[in-house]
Write a structure and sequence with these properties.
- The protein has strands at 4-7, 10-13, 18-24, 33-39, 46-51, 57-59, 67-72, 77-82, 91-98, 110-111, 115-120.
- Helices cover 0% and strands 49% of the residues.
- With 121 residues, it is mostly beta strands.
- It is globular, with a radius of gyration of 13 Å.
- Strands 2, 4, 5, 6, 9, 10 and 11 form a 7-stranded mixed beta sheet that branches. A 4-stranded antiparallel beta sheet has the order 1-3-8-7, with no helix packed on it.
Length: 121
Amino acid sequence: EVQFVESGGGSVQAGGSLRLSCEASEATSDTYCMGWFRQPAGRDREGVASINSAGDTTYADSVKGRFTISKDSAKNTLYLQMNSLKPEDTAMYYCAADRIDWLLWARYNYWGQGTQVTVSS
């Protein structure tokens, strides 16, 4: 079973940037679709961005133009570059993977442990 280790979260002021990383325990680039999700405290988990094995990407409207999902096959690592951060981006961020392309639906089979992002105004 593929496992993930996320990193890169932290505290930043509004307008700042962070890059999240999600390192997989095995090669995922060619066989898995992957996504980033977030869950603000007390709220449901929501899809942020996804990328399939062909490299096609999907973004939530709330992050389009600000966030970029990418992957490095050689490092088995998924990234989320977050720019122009807003206080409403504050949440626990999770990476996820599955052989099915669930896009931004939270139906992926494999999940990371999460990394906290806090944006202050």
